[in-house]
Amino acid sequence: MLLPRHRWIALAVLGTVIALTGDAVSQQPKVPVGPRPVAVIHGSMAITHEEFGKFLMDRGGAEKLEIFVNKKIIETEALKRGLTVTDLELKAAFKQSVATSSAAGDGKIISEADFIRVVLPKFGKNLYEWMEDIERPRLLLTKMCVDRIKIKDEDLTIQFERLHGEKRQVQIIIWPKGDDVKSIEKIYGRIRGSEVEFDSEARQQANPSLAAAKGNIKPITKHGTGDDKRVEDVAFKLKKGEVSEIITTQQGYIVMKLIDIIPANAAVKFATERPMLEKAAFEAKLEEEIPKCFAELRKAAAPDFKYAGPEEWKSTKNFLDNVASPVVPTPGGTK
Predict the structure, then answer these.
(1) If residue 172 lies in a helix (H) or strand (E), which one and from where to where?
(2) What number is the average pLDDT over the span 90-118?
(3) How far, in Å, CA of 63 to CA of 224, rounded?
(4) Mean pLDDT of the chain
(5) Alpha-carbon distance values, 230 to 147, 202, 245 (Å)
(6) Could you report the per-residue pLDDT of 37-53, keeping only the tens digit for each?
(7) How many CB atoms sit inside 10 A of residue 128's CB?
(8) CA-CA distances (angstroms) from residue 268 to 165, 224, 274?
(9) Alpha carbon distance 132, 75 (integer Å)
(10) 115-142 pLDDT tens trace
(11) Tens-digit pLDDT profile for residues 199-216
């Protein structure tokens, strides 16, 4: 127990410590109270999320606004239905995307690191954007659509024919949509009757991957969709060595030559493949159902876009027209 004199000494020392501590604290830079800033300059000047957000919006936000709105539409509906996506589901979806990318290529297995480094930039995405803007919304839409998908026996038959039925090996040339049609027709007249000319044009076509493969693609199967269906119909009517007419598609203008007819794989039995066919049929139906589901959500949400980019410098032409020509000083000055 402290004696009265000692108690006063202790209180005096404590008071001195508190005063010194208070002075030290008062000398520290004060960051404004509120949302955590994205940066601080000059010791105490906070750069806010709002300021940084406007900076980013003015430099590309308008281009990404629709992506953001679409994502919010999906997430809002998912919240109403109590649907969520786990990290394990996201990782599994990513691995599936890598596997699908490998299958769609030349058969070479793509590593996850190569998918991130090489494939994602082609879509204008980094890993975070891919996971949050592609994988997560797709998983949520899948959960919304799953009860709408019904598999019938005819769906399994279609998958069996697609995977194991007769195929067509073709060589194709694609001209972009903007190319001059008359020039394409002139080239077509030259390549239609000459294997050498066809091969030469195939090696020079605009698509670098097709040019490197001399126009050779994976065999065309039955039961394609979209443009693939149109190309499929023409391919299955061609005779070996025959060149098609010019086909107008969403990709551009296509000409193909039938190289070979690949017979159906008679060794594969429908009953044995049924589980795999059911999975393939489900995935095919899902690919058809997801766009329909999202179209319904978007229609119900009725998005009204208010932001179209910054008003300053909005029109390059108007800006240049209104800028006075700079005065260029002449050597020796004006007289």
Answers:
(1) strand 167-176
(2) 86
(3) 32
(4) 86
(5) 31, 20, 12
(6) 999 999 999 999 999 99
(7) 8
(8) 10, 21, 11
(9) 11
(10) 999 999 999 999 999 999 999 999 999 9
(11) 999 999 999 989 999 999
CA distance 134 to 77: 16
Q: Burial letters for 274-313: b for 16+ Cβ neighbours within 10 Å, e otherwise?
A: eeebeebbbebbbeebbeebbeebeeeeeeeeeeeeeeee
Domains of the chain and any CATH numbers:
166-262 (3.10.50.40)
**Cα gap 57→308, rounded to integer Å:** 10
pLDDT of residue 19: 45
Q: Are 32 and 46 in contact (CB under 8 A)?
A: yes
Above 60 in pLDDT, residue 23? Answer: no
Best CA proximity match to 188, nearest among 226, 122, 243, 119? 243
pLDDT in tens, 56-65: 988 888 889 9
The CA-atom distances, in angstroms, between 283 and each of 78, 159, 160 are: 21, 11, 14
CB atoms within 10 A of CB 314: 10
In Å, the largest CA–CA distance within the chain is 116
Structure tokens at 26: 């008062």
Start-to-end Cα distance in the chain? 96
| The token pair that represents 211 in the structure block | 């040019």
When computed from its CA atoms, the radius of gyration of the chain, rounded to whole angstroms, is: 32
Q: Which amino acid is at 202?
A: A
SS3 (DSSP) at 167: strand
Return the axis-axis angle of helices 270-301 and 136-145, rounded to nearest 10°: 100
